[in-house]
Amino acid sequence: MRFSGDPVSAAIAALKAGAPVITDIRMVQIGIQKKGHRSEVLCALDFGSDIAKSQEITRSSAGILALRDRIPGSIIVIGNAPSALLVICDLIKEGIRPAVVIGTPVGFVNAAESKALLRTIDIPSISTEGTRGGTPIAVAALNECITILIGESAQ
């Protein structure tokens, strides 16, 4: 696990502000705790089907592009799709700034490369190294930030 730019504080601040959480796949969306925050949890797969067809890109990548106006200040959670993480990195380079990116896609095709690229960008982030990672790690990272927020609220 690699932490860059104080991602836990960034995630908690974004949750306090009610920023949207944008996920790459349904399993990540479903795994995120719904209690303890007021952030809407969106799945990229629900957006951009026309973009996916016209540009011949993955549905997760197309959904991220379709949600570009919702990305500033948001929490991005990518647990499966390296292509979506690469799109997020490109959007950040264009000046679109989420509050934090949790990027832990698993696999052999662009997984390691997408996470390595994320770590070169000046944005708060949590990532895994190499080809390992996945949905459970991405979900656990955000759920722990939610748990910390709940604990702070209880004090």
Structural class: alpha/beta
CATH homologous superfamily descriptor: Cobalamin biosynthesis CobH/CbiC, precorrin-8X methylmutase
Listing every helix as H and every strand as E from the N terminus to the C terminus, the arrangement reads EHEHEHHEHEHEH
Low-confidence stretches: none
The structural domain count equals: 1
* Backbone CA Rg: 14 Å
Chain-averaged pLDDT: 95
The total strand number stands at 6
Categorize the overall geometry.
globular
Task: Walk me through the structure.
Helices cover 47% and strands 13% of the residues. With 155 residues, the protein is of the alpha/beta class. The protein has one domain: 3-Layer(aba) Sandwich (Rossmann fold). The protein is globular and about 50 Å long.
What features would you highlight for this structure?
globular, 6 strands, Rossmann fold, alpha/beta, 155 residues, single chain, 47% helix, six-stranded mixed beta sheet
Give the secondary structure arrangement, pairings included.
Layout: E1 2-4, H1 7-16, E2 21-23, H2 26-31, E3 41-43, H3 49-55, H4 59-66, E4 75-78, H5 82-93, E5 100-103, H6 111-120, E6 125-127, H7 135-154
Brief sketch in words of this structure:
This protein has 7 helices and 6 strands, in the order βαβαβααβαβαβα. It is of the alpha/beta class. The protein has one domain: Cobalamin biosynthesis CobH/CbiC, precorrin-8X methylmutase (Rossmann fold).
